[in-house]
Amino acid sequence: MLRRILAACALVLLVALQFDYNMARFPFLEREAFHRHFTRMPDGQWEQYPRFLDGVRAHTKPGDRIAIVVPSMTWDGVYSYAYYRASYFLTGREVIPLLYRTDAPIASNLERADYLAVWQSRGPEATVVWQGEGGVLLRRR
Fold first, then answer.
1. Burial 100-114 (b: 16+ CB within 10 A, else e)
2. Domains of the chain: which residue ranges?
3. d(C-alpha 82, C-alpha 75), whole Å
4. Angle of helix 48-58 relative to helix 80-89, nearest 10 degrees?
5. Nearest-angstrom CA–CA distance, 23 and 25
6. What three-state secondary structure class fits 128?
7. Cys bridge to 92: 9, 36, 62, 124, which one at CB 3.0-4.6 A?
8. In sequence order, which ranges of the chain are alpha helices (DSSP H)?
9. Angle (CA) 63 67 82, round 5°
10. How many CB atoms lie under 10 A from the CB of residue 116?
């Protein structure tokens, strides 16, 4: 009997030590502020980037092929984030990477793109479709 009581106490102690008491505060948090914080959090220093991608989405149509150009064209440094975030925001469009994971450029993908979404960088001479939020959308053809 004593063994069962000690086992039950040990189980209660383990559960109590593993419980995250910060979770108990969630129902009492201001939801709007919480939502704003977690919506901005993935973009860190790139606050304008989601708004730029919204503008790109508004000025393109489903099925368009869009290549992304950002200030640092290194896969691990910046480009992978910009590419995957654009893939999320530009659902229905084909987001084309301009780099391999080895940082080597993919010239054939540049030729395939209908548009270049150039954010805080200089792009090639092309027809400007839209400009705003720190970037420009260029038509390739």
1. eeeeeeeeeeeeebb
2. 2-41, 45-139
3. 9
4. 50
5. 5
6. strand
7. 62
8. 2-18, 31-40, 48-58, 80-89, 107-112
9. 110
10. 24
What is the band of 128 on the pLDDT scale with cuts at 50, 70, 90?
A: confident
pTM of the model: 0.69
pLDDT in tens, 11-45: 988 888 887 777 777 777 788 887 777 777 766 77
> Between the CA of residue 123 and those of 13, 115, 118, 126, 135, what are the distances in Å?
61, 11, 6, 8, 10
- Alpha-carbon dihedral angle through residues 41, 44, 46, 52, given to the nearest 10 degrees: -10
The answer to whether residues 140 and 115 touch, using CB atoms and an 8 Å cutoff, is: yes
Residue type, 96: I
Q: What is the CA radius of gyration of the chain?
A: 23
Phi, psi values for residue 120, rounded to 5°: 50, 40
* Rounded CA separation 49/60 (Å): 16
Contact between residue 123 and residue 136 where contact means Cβ atoms under 8 Å apart = yes
Q: Let me know: does 113 contact 140? Beta carbons within 8 Å.
A: yes
